[in-house]
Amino acid sequence: AQSVTQLDSHVSVSEGTPVLLRCNYSSSYSPSLFWYVQHPNKGLQLLLKYTSAATLVKGINGFEAEFKKSETSFHLTKPSAHMSDAAEYFCVVSARSSASKIIFGSGTRLSIRP
Amino acid sequence: EAQVTQNPRYLITVTGKKLTVTCSQNMNHEYMSWYRQDPGLGLRQIYYSMNVEVTDKGDVPEGYKVSRKEKRNFPLILESPSPNQTSLYFCASSLDGGVAWDTRRDTQYFGPGTRLTVL
């Protein structure tokens, strides 16, 4: 069985300060983990993906995430927030098994204060 | 241009009137999937398809049907829509569902979404 928990439904940071969006997962199989971003009234865009090649994954727009198996976490970070980062972020798990369900977290809304 | 298209983008209908939302991809992807997005719940998978003529239930399949007669198309059918199916729907596709160990293959590409209102 798989599950994803995004620990914060809303995060607010000031422009120029670090961003941390937290995600914990569980999976019976070796997972692929993703972060997607959804800007207001837009579709979903892939930010980054973990596929077991490296535990620190770099994505677009300066975001990165670190896979920590011992903590079953895949937190998303960015050193310095920009106003254009305001959006909804989804953590996603896909277990590479014969039943390829894909599970989305409930989302974290990121607000950026000027 | 590689893309996933959905039609219609917006639809307002009444309870019980059958409707179909189409989804098409031009990337020769084997895996296709439907999601609904509701506030506070993220995206929940309705149905997915590993290949032509192979479909399976996701987490919230009740009230929906799908078919996969061709590789490129994966329509979502609501035989008798109800107000609790008012939602934002996304179709997505990927090379495969991640069964293969080539982990480049399970990245999903999403359509633009269909906003459905059932009165």
Write a concise synopsis of the structure shown.
The complex is a heterodimer of chains A (114) and B (119). With 114 residues, chain A is an all-beta fold.
Q: What distance lies between the first and last C-alpha atoms of chain A, to the nearest angstrom?
A: 41 Å
Number of strands of chain A: 12
Secondary-structure element sequence of chain A? EEEEEEEEEEEE
Based on Cα principal axes, name the global outline of chain A. Answer: globular
Q: Which word captures the global form of chain B?
A: globular
What profile does the largest beta sheet of chain A have? 6 strands, mixed
Secondary-structure-derived class of chain A: mainly beta
Summarize model confidence as the mean pLDDT of chain B: 90
The proportion of strand residues of chain A reads over 45%
Give a description of the structure.
The complex is a heterodimer of chains A (114) and B (119). Helices cover 0% and strands 55% of the residues of chain A. In chain A, strands 2, 5, 6, 10, 11 and 12 form a 6-stranded mixed sheet that branches. With 114 residues, chain A is mainly β. The mean pLDDT of chain A is 89. Chain B is mainly β. Chain B contains no helices and 11 strands. Chain B has strands at residues 4-7, 10-13, 19-25, 31-38, 42-51, 54-57, 65-66, 76-78, 87-94, 109-110, 114-118. In chain B, a hairpin with a 2-residue loop joins β5 (42-51) and β6 (54-57). The relative contact order of chain B is 0.32.
Descriptors for this entry?
heterodimer, A: 114 residues, mainly beta, six-stranded mixed beta sheet, four-stranded antiparallel beta sheet, B: 119 residues, 48% strand, globular
Q: Layout of SSEs?
A:
The complex is a heterodimer of chains A (114) and B (119).
Chain A: E1 3-6, E2 10-14, E3 19-21, E4 23-26, E5 31-38, E6 44-50, E7 56-58, E8 64-68, E9 73-78, E10 87-95, E11 102-104, E12 108-113
Chain B: E1 4-7, E2 10-13, E3 19-25, E4 31-38, E5 42-51, E6 54-57, E7 65-66, E8 76-78, E9 87-94, E10 109-110, E11 114-118
Parallel strand pairs in B: 2-11
Antiparallel strand pairs in B: 1-3, 3-8, 4-5, 4-9, 5-6, 7-8, 9-10, 9-11
